[in-house]
What does this fold into?
Amino acid sequence: MIRIKVPGGDITPTQLEKVASLSESFSIGSAHVSTRQNIQLHWVQLEDVSEVFRGLAEVGLTSREACGNTIRNVMCSHFAGVCPNEPFDTTPYAKAIARFFLRNPICQNLPRKFKFNFSCCPEHGYVRIADVGLVPTVRDGVRGFRVYLGGGLGAASFIGHLLEEFTPDSRLLSTSIATIRLYDRLGNRENLARNRMRYLVSEIGWEKFQGLLLKERILVEATISIPTRKSYDGFLNTGDLNNTSISSTSTKSKITLPVINSNSGDTPYTRWLNTNVVAQKQSGYYSVYITLGAGDITSSQLRIFAECIREFSLEKKARTTPQQNFLVRYIKADQLPKVFQKLSGNGLGNPGANTIVSTVGCSGTTSCNLAITNSHRLAKEIQSKFLELNVDLDKDFVDSSIKISGCPNSCGQHEVATIGFYGGATRIGTSMVPIYTMLFAGSTGENGELGKAIMRVPAKKVLDVVLKIFEYFKKERTGNEKLNEWIYKISNGNGSGEIKNVDDMKKLLLPIIELPAFSTAPDFYKDYGTDTNFVAKTARGECAA
It folds into this structure.
């Protein structure tokens, strides 16, 4: 697997076309968008890797430090620059951090991988589950951030801690360097299972870590060289901090996304319009989601997508999203029917992007050595079933999510989903069975929370369990509650009907997860995407995201 870094998720049509060509020449004719805004090519032969690297370099892309004990792809909200509720665009800052630390000696041999995540506002972003998460804010006319440290997902997950109430943007570089230096010096280099920065913060305690970091920042600011500062400032200034050519058309009133709604959802276009088109803060412009199946897109679709960007987007770029989709921005309202026609004619017009239909799934056993189950195929099965049942037409499932990982390592980000699943294995009688642990009430954003483990569900029963939960939700909810609100209420023991807490939910779901005997229904004991009996087999390798 070759992981292509896409800082901030920002990618051009030319780069997409190059990925398409490389995929056809050296991979399997398709690419995969990961939950960390990377693009991956799978099944590349080792002898072809150098040719892929050369091709990527021709269009300004790289795989350098996309893996290993370095600073990984720097994430940034795909709404940055167009979100009505953002104080300023964080994209230039995300790109400057990415450029500054690429090939920087300070971060070439960290104890383990290190992740930055920039949001656009408190609602959009994954800032609480990153080593460094940054929420933009303005105080007395000065740009700055609320910086969260020590978050992350995995076998043991933690929510990040707030460093201080306000960190001016002039201290972003020194804060970042101080954090990396402290982690490099104190991080665990012996135990692979506990060498992420979140474990260091947990073991020494947040207050001690915070005190050490603030002292380290003073040392950094006292000793940082002028060329180092100028290098970062140069990267930042090339990011067009003010973006005046486009943002001058901004509206000042805050609005809710999405804002395009149609009372008629019985045509493919209106279904797509209701869930895949959102209004920007720039008056008259809209952003369009391209809903992928668990992040997969073929080479021919990439080329059509690149043409679409050139033809319809004022920005002439696209963004990858943590939901494994694409977002194309700066499209005028009168162009939306043409955009849909071009996308739908090439298998890219599926609705459901802003709903639970857009199921997230890591690559699972299709390509990952660490995976136990085929989360990738399960995610596609769920998405296909939801589209068949017209779940995208039901506004009760807006803002809810299903995220699936093939193991506890959380590449599918299952712990921040409304309903999350991570893969495992168990034995029933003499037969091995692929199984998922189900979690409730995870969420993202600045107030994000980790989901709570509820019960274990056999792989071939996951879809039945989810549909039964939908049924109970429709029966038990009060007022205009959405699914994510009802799930949160149940997980906290505040249900008002027959289901008051997770124990009540488990009792009702237990009959559904029972498997028939292997002799009468052997398919229930197999994983998705395979006709052979299930075997839990893993190997050493790199996580899929």
User: Anything to note?
Assistant: The first strand starts at residue 2 and ends at 4. The radius of gyration is 23 Å. Residues 30 and 298 are 4 Å apart (CA to CA).
